Amino acid sequence: MNKARSNPLNTVMMHGALILYTLIALFPVFVILINSFKTRKAIFREPLALPDADSFSTIGYETVMKQGDFFLYFQNSMVVTVASLFFVLLFGAMAAYALSEYRFRGNMLMGLYLALGIMIPIRIGTVAILEMMVATGLVNTLWALILVYTAQGLPLAVFILSEFMRQVSDDLKNAGRIDGLSEYTIFFRLVLPLVRPAMATVAVFNMIPIWNDLWFPLILAPAEETKTLTLGSQVFIGQFVTDWNAVLSALSMAILPVLILYVIFSRQLIRGITSGAVK
Amino acid sequence: MNKARIRWHILVFLAPAVLVYTAVMIFPLFNTLRLALYTRIEQERVFAGLDNFRTLFFDPIWAEQFWNALGNNFWFFLVHMLVQNPIGIALAALLSHPRLRFAALYRSAIFIPTILSFVIVGFAWKLILSPIWGIAPSMLDAVGLKSLFAPWLGKEEYALTTLALISVWQFVGIPMMLIYAALLTIPEEILEAGEVDGITGMPAFWKIKLPLILPSIGIISILTFVGNFNAFDLIYAAQGALAGPDFSTDILGTFMYRTFFGFQLQLGDPHMGSAIAGAMFAIILLGVCIYLFGIQTRMRRYQL
Questions:
Q1: N or C: which end of chain A has fewer CB within 10 A?
Q2: Domain carrying residue A33
Q3: CA atoms of B164 and B80, how far apart (whole Å)
C-alpha cells in the first residue's frame, strides 16, 4: 500500500461519514426497541433514555400477547416463507437444469419466456389472481400465498441457477451417464449438491420480500387464521394506535425475527449480492 | 441417439416451473389486461372496449385522481434517483476503500433498514416524526433548528417527499451493495496506472471508477423505476388506503388498491382496477424498454 491513497485525515473523515450514516440507519430501530420496554410516562418524558429500574415495563408486550395472536401470525409467515422457498428452489433448479443441460427446440425461447417475470411485477395481475383464487377456493388459505410467491420467485431463480449450472463440469455428468445413472439421479445426486451455494443465494434473496410482503396477504388471505406477521402487525397497530406501549411492542416483535434471520444469513446475503448474482 | 424419441425427462424438469409460472403469473397478467376491457352492468360482465381507459384518462373525477397519482409517482421516483442512488454510490465508494477498518460492520448495519418490512418502517417513522411524541422536534431543538419542525407527514406539501425520503432511508442499502460489488471488480492495476499518472482520491473516483460502474448504475435505475411504480406498502402502512392528507401521497399502487376494493362509500370495481393495472403495466414496460434499447445498448462498456 502506498502513501498516496491513505492519509490519516481522509481516514478520519471516511469513518466520520460512515458512522454518521450508520447512526441514521439504526436510530429509528433503536428508539423503537428501547421504548417498547418503558412505561407510558417514560416513553413521553424521555424518549431517548434507556429503560432503567424506574421506567422499565413490559405492559406493552402483555397487551400484545393478550390481544393479538402473534404466535399464529409468526407460524403462518414461517409456513408461507419456507414452503415458497422450497418450491422456488426445487422447481427453479429443475427448470434451470433442463435449460442449461439439454439442447432442444425452443430452449432459447423458453428461457426468455421464464425471464420475462424478472422485470414485470406480479402485482399487476392482482385482479385476475384474486378472481382465480376465489374460483378455486384457495382464497384465505396459505396455499394462495405460497403459489403466488413461488411464481414470483421462479424467474430470477431460474436465471441465476442456470448460470451456475452451466459451470458444472460435463465430464462429471457424462461419467454418471456411463455408470448408468438416470437423468433424474444425475440431477439430484450430482448436480444439486454442487450448486448449493447458488441455491442459498436464491433463497436469501427471496426470503426477505416474501416475509415482508403486505400486498398479497392483505388481498388473498386477510382472514384471522391466515394472517402473516406483517399483515397481523399492521392490523394490530391500526387498532391499538393510541396505545403507545402496545404499538411499540408490536413493532419490536415484528422487527426481532427479521433481525435474527439477518444476523444468521447476512454473510450469505451480502456474499450473494456482491458475487454479482444479480448482474 | 434416436432423434424422434421424446426426451421425457426434459418435460418433467420443465413442467412444474412452467406450469406454476404460467398459471399464477403470466395468465393472470393477461387476464387482468383483458378484464380492463370489460365493465359490469347490472351484475353482468359486458365487453366495453376501451371505455374504462377513456374514463380513467378523461373523465374529470377519475382523470384528476389518475394524473395526481401518476405525478406523485414520478416525484417519488425522482426523489429516489436524486437522493437514494447518489448516497448509495457515495457509501459504496467509501466502503470499497482498501484497508478501511470495520467495513463489514458498517455494511451490515447500513443494510438493516432494507430487511425491515414497510409496516415497521412506516409506523416507526410515523411515531418518530409525530408531534405528539416529540422526538423529531426535540432533536431539532438540540441543534437549534426547532423552527424547522412541522408535522411533515400531515402536511399536504411535505407528506409525499417525506415518505419518499423514508423509502430512501429504507432502500439505500441496495444501490450501496450493488455498486460496492461493481467497485470490487475493478482491477487494482488500473487504479495503480492512474496513480502513476498522478490521479488519486476524488479525481480517481470521477475519472476512473465512475465510468466503469455506469452499467451497474443503469441496472439500479431500472430496478428503482420498477420498484417505485409498483410501490404500495409504505404509503398504505403510513397513511392508509386514502393516501392522505387529501390524496397528496396517492401513487398508482394505492390508487389501484382503492379502486379495486373500494373504500368508504365507493364500491370496489375490479374492471377499473384492471384498467389502472394496465396503465401501470404500460408504464413499467415503457421504462424497461427505454432502458434495454435506449440506454443499455448505448452504454460504453469497458473490458476489464
A1: N
A2: 3-62
A3: 7
- Rounded to 5 degrees, φ, ψ at B41 are -125, 115
- What is the rounded distance in angstroms from the CA atom of residue A83 to the CA atom of residue B26? 21
Give the tens place of pLDDT for each residue, B242-264.
877 888 899 999 999 999 888 77
Tell me which amino acid residue A68 is: G
Which residue segments constitute the domains of chain B, with CATH numbers given?
8-35 (no CATH), 51-296 (1.10.3720.10)
Q: What is the predicted pLDDT for the residue at B70?
A: 94
| B17 vs A95, A121, A258: nearest CB | A95
> Is B95's pLDDT higher than 60?
yes
Inspect the interface and report whether the beta carbons of A22 and B110 lie closer than 8 Å: yes
- Give the residue from chain A lying closest to B292, CA to CA: A119
Residues of A in contact with B24 (CB under 8 A): 122, 129, 132, 147-148, 150-151
Q: Which candidate from A21, A44, A110 shows the least CB-CB separation from B14?
A: A110
- Domain identity same for A89 and A105: yes
% pLDDT > 70, chain A:
95
**What per-residue confidence (pLDDT) applies to A265?**
79
Residues A201 and A228 in one domain: yes
Q: Is residue A278 part of a domain?
A: no
A121: chain B residues, CB-CB within 8 Å: 226, 230, 284
Mean pLDDT of the residues in chain B:
87
Contact B109 A22 (CB under 8 A): yes
| % pLDDT > 90, chain B | 35
**One-letter amino acid for residue B140 of the chain:** L
Note whether A214 contacts B233, CB cutoff 8 Å. yes
pLDDT of residue A1: 43
Answer whether residue A267 is part of any domain.
Answer: no
Classify each residue of B253-265 as buried b or exposed e, where b means 16 or more C-beta atoms within 10 Å of its C-beta. bbbbbbbbbeeee
| pLDDT of the residue at A154 | 95
Domain count along chain A: 2
pLDDT single digits (tens) A5-34: 557 778 888 899 999 999 999 988 998 888
Give the residues of chain A that fall short of pLDDT 50. 1-4, 277-279
Three-class SS of chain B: CCCCCCCHHHHHHHHHHHHHHHHHHHHHHHHHHHHCCEEEECCEEEECCCHHHHHHHHCHHHHHHHHHHHHHHHHHHHHHHHHHHHHHHHHHHHHCCCCCCCHHHHHHHHHHHHHCCHHHHHHHHHHHHCCCCCHHHHHHHHCCCHHHCCCHHHCHHHHHHHHHHHHHHHHCHHHHHHHHHHHHCCCHHHHHHHHHCCCCHHHHHHHHHHHHHHHHHHHHHHHHHHHHHCCCHHHHHHHCCCCCCCCCCCCHHHHHHHHHHEECCEECCHHHHHHHHHHHHHHHHHHHHHHHHHHHCCCCCCCC
Which of A93-107, B61-75, B133-147 is the least confident region? B133-147
B124 to chain A, minimum CA–CA distance in Å? Answer: 7
Domain with A189 in it: what CATH number?
A: 1.10.3720.10
